[in-house]
Amino acid sequence: MGVGDGLRAGGERVSRLRRFYGAQPLHLLAAVVSFAIVAAGVAGWFQTGSDPRGIIIWALGSVIAFEWILLPLAWLLDRIALGSRTLPGPVNRAYVRVPALLSALLLIVFAPLIVSADKPDFEATTGFTPPDYLARWLLATAAMFVVSAVAYALSLRRVRVAVGQDRSVND
Amino acid sequence: MQDVTGPDGPDGGRLRPWSGRSPLRGPWLTSALGAVLLGGLPVVFITGLLSNAAYNPWLNGNVALQGRSRSPLDFYLFTWPAHPAWLYALNEGIHVSLGLALIPTILVKQWSVMPRLVARPVVRSPAHALERLSLVFLVGGIFFEIVTGLLFEEYWVPYHFDFTAAHYYGAWVFFGALGLHTALKLPKLRQSLRTRGSLARVLRTDLEHTVPEPPEDPALAPDSLVPRAPSSPTMSRRALLGATAAGSVLLGVQGVAQDIGGPVRSLAFLLPRGSEPGTGPNDFPVNGTYASLGLPDHTIGPRWRLRVSSADGQLLQFTRAELSSRFQQHTYWLPIACREGWSTTQRWTGVRLRDLAAAVGVSGTPALSLQALDGATATLASNQVSAEESLLALFVNGVPLSPDHGYPARVIVPGEVAVNCLKWVSAMAFAPVVSA
After folding, report:
1. What's the predicted TM-score (pTM) here?
2. What is the ipTM of this complex?
3. Are B304 and B204 within one domain?
4. Which chain A residue shows the shortest CA-CA distance from B151?
5. What is the CATH number of the domain that holds B320?
6. B400 & B256 share domain
């Protein structure tokens, strides 16, 4: 058997692997390296001395909370607040959506402080009683809606000026 | 012809309407967001590893992972330097601020690929199965890092595991998966950004001119991101990117402000370190009050003594008055830099650590094991002990330390994480370096 035959047999093995596996051998190599690091990280979780079930619940729970609760909820609220999509032509909802999304972002990120779930720990750590984060968040939300309303008013004015110019050209 | 199931799914998007029909979705949008994360997340990862290295975890008694794990991921390549003094404050400020700032991009990118989550068939080949399994670790990993980081930052601990270790290994879980994800997607990312649009054009396009991205070749992208039946746009792509950027600024500024402190601290209006406790010389942020230790008051009264020892059995005891009268006092501006990403720079006065070493007859460059009244321990590396600014501080801003800031005496070391700069120090043992 010549060298060429060996190469051909090897090539056939590779293409058979490719057909079965669904990607190039390099893909498999990358996957093995990646999963080795992932596995070392997961093993680390199991070696910390604390119950790793809690860690796994928090990791998967936060994904599920975002993809199967928060996103559908945001979609639903959007539909309720801004109506169905049957409106003719493009309707700009950004002026409501953007401040609402930013407000929701702040609420999610700073929820422990905004709902004051942490008062005893907070005081023991910082030495002062927590300020009213709920009020701060509401103020920030109000400010963002005001900015958005001003931007909307300016855009309406721009449109009106543009329409006015069109008319004067037509006149 | 084979029927290729589009992103709307076999039900045309009726069952999961939030996951498929937005006209903004498509490879360009996902790639643009991905490029931001590809630039930012490695920086968060590396500053996170450096933050762990700043503990010198290989020294006895230091917190972090030491003694709790024998993972191959616990490797330390160097001793944490003592200069520049703001090194840890900068590193941790980047870690926390950039981590905060990337949250909106991560959420929007996750939204942008929702059609993939519900695509059918679930698995097309062993290779595809591995990719999808890897995504569980990728997405689970990053969400775990975000949630634990935020809860730690906001002093709410509803979980029963050790934050430091879980956050550290979680970063490796995520980063292992990100390696594969990047290797697989980088060609598509580059191609999409080159051929499917340009940022400049997207930023010039208003709502009226916003159109779905061109459809993908179904042979190359069986789980296409561009919807088959897009709804009409209700906001422009630039409004979505603008909202994402605004969210990054809102969050990132909080992180930067709490790290820089001083006049800009109040910009961190939704973080615990967004306010100074007052205006007096001791009114700068506290981490752990004396009252919270539950120790009787006389513990830090006149009967307090500092025990200073050497490896060969020398032992001296000092009262606070002796420490301030028998030793030359030195004053330096140094930051306390917390692993929560905030810092505060103050003017500390006290005894050089290396002078205390000399007092018990230790020459050269010893390591130093510390013990505090609250049971905390830490070991400083020899470069930290011999740094001239490293102090056993007795005063701050010209007055004695307050109990909350570590009265009778606390350690302050340039460039070091605050956890290792113990307050309420009770014993110091100079010794040759003992590694774990």
Report:
1. 0.91
2. 0.91
3. no
4. A112
5. 3.90.420.10
6. no
